[in-house]
């Protein structure tokens, strides 16, 4: 849900939200550069890598170098002869994404977005292009799309490109994007629909393949390109991903879809859960996918499942596993390559499929790092023979670089030096493990910059969103601003997190804020046994589910001296009617609000708010669909009434994921200033 809405209550607050005083005035625009601003500028100094793709023949690499403007870089497989692909003046200022090598390795398809509307109110225009990697011809525009497109995928014969397409879109197809203004006939007017579409490379003809009655989320071509498998649900798309079914149909307009798996009716461990990443086996006989309790579309994690492509019973291939698969690819009719979270580390492992089970082999490698190829979380790019891999990699110690090489027991080396000169502005990072209530729990501890073992330090606890998510070692940039400013920074992965199997993920169902809080408090105790943390100087922060925890936790304990709550939830009962993704809540709470209001009241901060003494800064986007602004208003109003120091800052034209860099930096600066006031780094 929250990884990262507006209905009646939001409409009542519209006048207040539009008042200039309700919006943030970025500090950087109103004051000279401060020490904090200079620190944030240094922390944000990184060259960001987008999609990474290795050619099918394994000979070449391509990656997107993000920025203003972005560029597509090409290199040999070992990173040599790297150069920017000449895309011509027409595309110079356009965003580039979704790299897809042609099956013959001679061409590279990509999507160009030549307009950036931070208000998400203007119609989008995307183009699909094919670049000649030999540089002998300018990129050819294959299709001009009046809308939003993503997830390019070639058919094996190289004649067609498939993609997800929202005609007439004004925003990214994501619940984290800024929502549309909630005016008019709510839920009926101007509903955007995402299709699986195909583009004929020779003619440029674009066809929508899936019916108007379904909103498609992910898809895959069958090996022969004649069929598609996809997850879909009735619109609206942002809210119904959690009840999506798995469909198969012929790859032609008007073809009738056949539902293969419906989690609402299936028996066993998948019942009532979510599905992601459908993938055909190489022989076309089966479709595998990841299934489990997932709080956010795109935050994939769970067990591996498969189902016959002609229909039948879906089976759990990895029941009881102690890791969280987050991405996979078939490498043979009986073999999978799986990228997984293993207690805070990334593993790449081979699985052998025997009948109704998949057996994990010894991992190729395990890394305290984050990897990705620009698609699903922890994805990798594979050559056609599955012998070479490529992805971007980063950690607490090393900024992002492209890594590529032979798939084996030695992790692929970095083949770029884009960020080689960057050094962490924070102290060392260590993995911390502790046992609590019979569970092994893990988290990460960042030491303060210029750490002195003879001193004691305050510590800020940062709770991740989700809750089905997990903190991995990754270059945090501004996310390490507290450690860079003299604080210990603790990032726990309590029950409900990825990394220790599906049972651990589901351990906080109907128990938000209780068991996970106890895990976090036990983790703080564990940290204090190995690091000089002053228990009387603890801070708390988080975004999304972490924002909820930053509101709820001070109602349960006085241990924290200051808090910053980003896009939080203060009242699960009112939230149920305000957000636009309410389907995610039933798997977690066990029933709707209308059937079991007590389950929602149990974890609502407003029901215990008179216990709060913690000064709290509250920040939110005014068009957040996932954690709507009224939730922040409600908590702020309660603290103001009770005389608890608080401040509410609402950012214009922002959704759950902030897009405007000025707003991102303003949140960071205000957060640092808040802790400096109520929890100074030095006594």
Pick out its properties.
683 residues, alpha+beta, Rossmann fold, eight-stranded mixed β-sheet, five-stranded antiparallel β-sheet, 13 helices, 15% helix, globular, disordered N terminus
Give a concise summary.
The protein is α+β, with helices and mostly antiparallel strands. The protein has a domain at 8-44 and 422-678: 3-Layer(aba) Sandwich (Rossmann fold), CATH 3.40.50.1820.
Indicate the percent of residues in helices: 10-25%
The CATH C-level class name of one domain = Alpha Beta
Q: Outline the low-pLDDT stretches.
A: 2-23, 25-32
Helix/sheet category: alpha+beta
Shape: globular
> How many strands appear in the DSSP assignment?
37
Task: Kindly report how far apart the N and C termini lie.
Answer: 38 Å
What's the CATH topology name of one domain? Rossmann fold
Note the main sheet. Answer: 8 strands, mixed
Mean pLDDT across the residues is 93
User: Taking strands numbered 1, 2, ... along the chain, how are they ordered across the largest sheet?
Assistant: 30-31-33-32-34-35-36-37
CATH superfamily of one domain: Alpha/Beta hydrolase fold, catalytic domain
Beta content comes to 25-35%
**Please, how many helices?**
13
Characterise this structure.
By secondary structure, the protein is of the alpha+beta class. The protein has a domain at 8-44 and 422-678: 3-Layer(aba) Sandwich (Rossmann fold), CATH 3.40.50. The chain contains 13 helices and 37 strands. The model is unreliable at 2-23 and 25-32 (pLDDT under 50).
């Amino acid at each position: 849900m929250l990884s990262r809405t507006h209905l009646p209550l939001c409409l009542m607050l519209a006048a207040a939200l539009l008042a200039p005083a309700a919006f943030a005035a970025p500090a950087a625009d109103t004051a000279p550069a401060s020490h904090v601003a200079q620190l944030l500028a240094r922390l944000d100094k990184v060259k960001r890598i987008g999609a990474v793709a290795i050619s099918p023949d394994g000979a070449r690499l391509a990656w997107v170098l993000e920025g203003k403007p972005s560029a597509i870089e090409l290199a040999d497989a070992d990173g040599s002869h790297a150069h920017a692909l000449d895309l011509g003046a027409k595309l110079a200022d356009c965003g580039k994404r979704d790299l897809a090598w042609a099956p013959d390795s001679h061409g590279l398809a990509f999507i160009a977005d030549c307009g950036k509307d931070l208000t998400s109110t203007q119609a989008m225009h995307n183009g699909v292009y094919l670049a000649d990697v030999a540089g002998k011809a300018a990129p050819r525009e294959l299709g001009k799309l009046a809308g939003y497109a993503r997830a390019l995928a070639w058919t094996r014969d190289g004649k067609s490109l498939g993609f997800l397409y929202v005609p007439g879109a004004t925003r990214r197809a994501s619940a984290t994007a800024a929502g549309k203004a909630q005016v008019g006939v709510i839920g009926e007017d101007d509903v955007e629909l995402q299709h699986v579409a195909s583009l004929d490379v020779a003619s440029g003809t674009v066809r929508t393949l899936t019916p108007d009655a379904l909103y498609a989320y992910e898809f895959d071509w069958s090996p022969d390109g004649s069929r598609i498998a996809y997850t879909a649900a009735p619109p609206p798309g942002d809210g119904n991903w959690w009840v999506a079914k798995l469909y198969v149909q012929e790859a032609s307009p008007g073809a009738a879809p056949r539902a293969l798996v419906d989690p609402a009716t299936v028996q066993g461990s998948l019942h009532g859960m979510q599905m992601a990443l459908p993938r055909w086996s190489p022989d076309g006989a089966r479709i595998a996918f990841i299934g489990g309790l997932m709080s956010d579309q795109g935050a994939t994690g769970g067990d591996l499942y498969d189902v016959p492509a002609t229909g039948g019973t879906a089976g759990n291939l990895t029941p009881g596993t102690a890791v969280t698969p987050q991405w996979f690819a078939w490498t043979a009719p009986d073999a999978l390559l799986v990228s997984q979270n293993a207690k805070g580390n990334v593993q790449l492992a081979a699985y052998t499929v025997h009948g109704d089970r998949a057996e994990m082999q010894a991992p190729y490698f395990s890394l305290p790092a984050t990897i990705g190829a620009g698609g699903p979380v922890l994805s990798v790019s594979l050559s056609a023979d599955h012998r070479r891999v490529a992805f971007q990699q980063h950690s607490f110690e090393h900024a992002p670089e492209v890594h590529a090489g032979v798939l084996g027991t030695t992790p692929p080396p970095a083949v770029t030096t884009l960020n080689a000169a960057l050094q962490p502005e924070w102290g060392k990072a260590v993995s911390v493990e502790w046992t609590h209530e019979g569970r092994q729990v893990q988290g990460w501890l960042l030491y303060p910059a210029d750490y002195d073992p003879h001193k004691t330090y305050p510590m800020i606890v940062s709770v991740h969103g989700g809750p089905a998510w997990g903190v991995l070692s990754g270059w945090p940039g501004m996310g390490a601003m507290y450690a860079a400013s003299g604080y210990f920074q603790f990032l726990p992965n309590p029950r409900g997190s990825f990394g220790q199997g599906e049972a651990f993920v589901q351990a906080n169902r109907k128990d938000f804020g209780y068991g996970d809080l106890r895990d976090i408090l036990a983790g703080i105790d564990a940290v204090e046994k190995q690091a000089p943390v002053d228990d009387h100087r603890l801070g708390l922060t988080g975004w999304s589910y972490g924002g909820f925890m930053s509101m709820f936790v001070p109602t349960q304990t006085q241990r924290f001296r200051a808090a910053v709550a980003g896009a939080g939830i203060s009242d699960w009962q009112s939230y149920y009617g305000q957000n636009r993704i309410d389907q995610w809540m039933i798997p977690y709470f066990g029933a709707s609000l209308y059937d079991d209001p007590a389950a929602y009241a149990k974890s609502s901060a407003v029901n215990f708010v008179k216990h709060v003494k913690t000064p709290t800064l509250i920040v939110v986007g005014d068009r957040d669909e996932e954690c709507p602004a009224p939730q922040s208003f409600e908590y702020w109003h309660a603290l103001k009434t009770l005389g608890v120091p608080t401040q509410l800052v609402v950012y214009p034209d922002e959704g759950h994921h902030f897009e405007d860099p000025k707003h991102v930096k303003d949140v960071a600066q205000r957060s640092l200033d808040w802790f400096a006031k109520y929890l100074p780094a030095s006594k």
